[in-house]
Records
---
Amino acid sequence: MLKRKNISRRKFLTQAAAATAGVIGFPYIVSSSALGKAATVAPSNRIVMGCIGLGGQGTYNMTAFQNQPDVEVVALCDVNAGSNDYDMLYQFTGSSSAGLKPAIKRAQRAYAEKKPSSTYRGVDGYGDFRELLARDDIDAVTVCTPDHWHGLICVSAARAGKDVYCEKPLANTVAEGRAVCEAVYRSGRILQTGSHERSNDKARFACELVRNKYVGKLHTIRVNMPNSDPHHAVVRSNSFPQPVMQVPEGLDYDMWLGHTPWAPYTRMRSHFWWRFILNYGGGEMTDRGAHIIDLAQLGNGTDDTGPVEIFGEGRAPDDGLFDTFLEYKFECRYANGVRLIGESKEPRGLKFEGTDGWVFIHIHGGHLEAQPPSLLQESIGPNEIQLGRSPGHHQDFLNAVKTRQQPMAPAEVGHRTATVCHLVNIAMLTGRKLKWDPQREQIVNDAEANRLLSRPMRSPWHL
């Protein structure tokens, strides 16, 4: 059994209450007997995991870890008992049914198929993440909630002694991201940000070409982040006030809102569509943009810092529910002189331009282009900068849990990438050029913009 921090449920809930200011409601718990649970002790050679957030990406990550032979998923958590309106889930599961009960059924079915003639621990369900974190037997958790919950849950998980796989962006504000980093450092936990493009071999090779100056001196990184997918058309066509609706049965809507301002329920506020509302996400900038800008940070060698100047302009819906930017142009300048220039255009990816050539990483397709083409035939020598290769983003996290070595996308990396995304959004919101101090993590020329690095939290929640 992996060494873990032992803490009683009562003691942890007392500490969690101090950290997050009180428990809201009661957990939805599926009893062991109801699930036919025959044993309560995990095999000693496995990492015991819990999964928090079971929408599309959360269900995908649950399945990915459950398929690893060295993992046992024993607990799941979601504020939604179950519904059939997770619009983007079908691509992962073939069904739009998601939430706590459907995820438990999937997990139970997968284990039953693997062990048809033997007993196993079963899977427990919770509606409050603090109940899951209070369990002494859990080594690690996934955090796949909407972005506005990442910071609070990651901080609580680290304080509870759990290693964390957190979806990108690491947090929904710069201040929350820093709080996550501090909690991880102080607790000695492992955190992997779900920036899985960083584990792509071709992307890492492209960044090695840049870091070793095969393109000459790097001067410009061009980022393409189009808003041309069908769901962006849905956002555009629904950019008007949405009707107030009755909260669906089984959804703890107040818990879903968490620390954000109270707002009436409407279907397109939650599930997939929250990412286009600034209180809960950052639009394409922090969604797939976090993948692309993450690779820009890696290729530029700026994983532990960020740009010093940021400017952006964009267009967002001016009425209705959605308020993130759908079209944009932005430019960031780094202390090393490199310019990061972004636009909402095709093809999705990024281009590193140097004095002697360029290399383009296509996101999702994963293939590379280069000029001259011979760059892609180069070999990185043993005495050059080597960025290593990943066994896969999920397995990389599991290896880090076992070895206590940092994974490909640790907390600081995830935080610094998300910070660039947030700064661009802030620059577009204010319409002003921002001067950023990466060491102090402060906007030094604009007090109003600097206040947007954090947001007040609705009582009783706080970091």
Note: The chain is about 30% helix and 15% strand.
---
Amino acid sequence: MGLPFLREFSWLAAGPVPAVCDLRRLGWRLRRAPDDPGPVDPCPLLAVPSGLPFSQWLSLTGGPSQRRRATAMLGIEDAQQRSRLLRMGFGEAFGWPVSLDELAVRIERMTERALTLPRRRRIGTLLLDMVARDGFVAGRPIGLHPREFALLWRLGEQPGYAVSGAALLCDVWRLSFRPETNSLAVHVSRLRAKLRIAGLDGLIETAPHGGYRLAVGLPADFALDGYARMGKERAHETS
């Protein structure tokens, strides 16, 4: 039984969708790429990073991990660059040319994988295991209580991005209102204490405008290096 979102895609590039990868030729619908997509947006994104402004390149490489899993990078000719993008968590990476039929199949499978809840989530030296419901550092368990694990897992969906207190109460506590107690702050304090003992002091930050975030992100030098590589490829193509 097919899912309707598998017949939609978004496009992000300096130009229009070329015929070679225009899934509309196979009956798909093109959807406008949102400026700030959510981490679980099921619509696959096809992106050609060559020619994009640096700000848009950063939005691709520094976006939520679940969004990267639903993004296919096109026009990546260098095999090492494709490998690096895949290691970063992008769902697919292609060079040219691309077979339209193969592209459609790979995008469908990429989207299915992106919507599958992973068993493990790695955040630097921290490994979160959904089955064990605990975090591990160098193979040693931290000893998280269920709600502490759920809180850390939720923050781990978007490392480096602030999650509001309201969103945490909704997703972890299943509350649609802010209670009079400071349960969230208490749990964060206890979680920080356990992370400190495990050598991860400072992992959870209080965001400037409220909420919390994990003090990790993609290496800045990768974004700069990758963007520079794209510039060299463009220069080579036009020379």
Note: The chain has eight helices and eleven strands.
---
Amino acid sequence: MNPLVAVAGAVFAAAAGARLGWLTRGGAVAACLIGGGVLLGGGLHAGVLLGLFFVSGSLLTKWSEGAVVPADGPDPSRRNGVQVVANGLWAALGALAIPAFPPLGWAVLAGALGAAQADTWATEIGARSRRPTRLISTGAVVPPGTSGGVTPLGTSGGVAGAGLMAAVALAGRAPVPAALSALLGGSLGLILDSWLGATVQGDSAAVKAGWAWCTNDVVNLAGSGTGALVGLGLGLLWMAG
């Protein structure tokens, strides 16, 4: 995509997100950078995948507002800059690799976004669960919204989110590894995100001796990175075969 068009599209989308109350000012700036990179490397189809994650996640957050107050702090409906980068950095890097290595770049992009979407959908849909929330590491019942807490409804919602990302990637004629990465990487990223939240996240109410530097944003970066890593592996296998 033409660089000027990519920048204009990213600025427009970020401004719209801020206008709708989905992004803070810092979040809008970060969205310009992430969105610009995705559009520049992957074009309109890559932008559609990024938009799917951002719009669906924001709408689900609004839908789940009031259902539960997270045990480790309010769940803000407006994404700040750090949150945007944590969820979108690996996707942007994957997109920028598409012109040189199409199967690899698409797989990394889709895997990262599949993981980010799976985590967001699991969190917001799980907030409506009527079953007890249980810590993924021990099975202990914890308050809804606790980092590392899971429910059947939330987990199913997360996998569905990854599946939708895979379907949209395939519908847009992205290479097959992209769809596989979105589903498999998304599901694995979701599991890792929950596990880290239950065991080492420093700001989690469920962890008494976590790592202070391991915040929810760091966990999200690791989760989306897992999806990207799965995409990297599948992309390399596809190119080698």
Note: The radius of gyration is 17 Å.
---
Amino acid sequence: MILKVVDKWLLVFTVLLLLLILILPQILAYSNTLFLIIIGLVGIPHGALDHVIHFRNKSVSKMHTFNFYARYIALILVVCCCWYFFPLTTFGLFMAISAYHFGQSQLFYVKGPGVVRHVIFTLWGVFVLSSIIALNYHEGLAIIASLEWLNADEWMSVGLWTIIASASGLVLMAGFLYLWVHRHFTKQKLLFELFLLACLVLFSTFSNAVFTFSVYFGLWHSLRSLFIEYQSLNLAIKGYSLRNFLLNIFPFSFLAIIFLVISYYLAPYLWNDLSPYMLFIMFVSALTVPHLFIMHDLYENDQIKLQKS
């Protein structure tokens, strides 16, 4: 499916969902349920194809396969150790890495100087994440402070997140205008991205952090990434079908869900009063680092193919 069509329907659905919460704010009581559904259906599955994506254009040997999984697992273990020994630094780095990953997955099609593109990717993600926290500060504080190691009460304030959101938003707008003036960004795409960001800010304003993140992470990151991943694999592997795609998703999605469930039940014995959302952040951070390298390769190397198909 052409990405342009996917984006159009995702935006329509986002607007309808926004109107729904404005008319029926009672549905916000089901934010936790929506979050769980999103994570199970698209959140975890969108990262379960890293091995297939990595080998899509490569000859597969036993040694190459072993090296790939060894590096992948090693990165996961390194992140887990960092959470234990350097929790605050790890949290900050994870937020920065996630911001870049979110921005790249949304704007990978943008042309222009490499440094400018990567800065804009990061600013896009920083603005989205910091806006959600700044506009739902007490909810965000409760989640982050639930991990005592972070000492959130000593450094976290609504002013800090408001400054980060405002500064990143202003510089991001300047970056968008730079790309548009230099014809790296069409007027249509510029208006589309600005409208999407406005919708996400409205979600943060009129709903809550969990609901807003579920909408963004579920629709605009995970589901959209699944379309992109299928498109890339379909172009790279002859005869690759939707059935192959679903079969490739299942094994690692199943293992990740089992691991997450086990972690959820073990967490109270390791950390008192740890929020399940903070547990999710720690869990996802361990998977995001190796996943980011895989997806960066896909976005950068398949950029032209993905746009033309």
Note: The chain has one domain: 3-14+62-308.
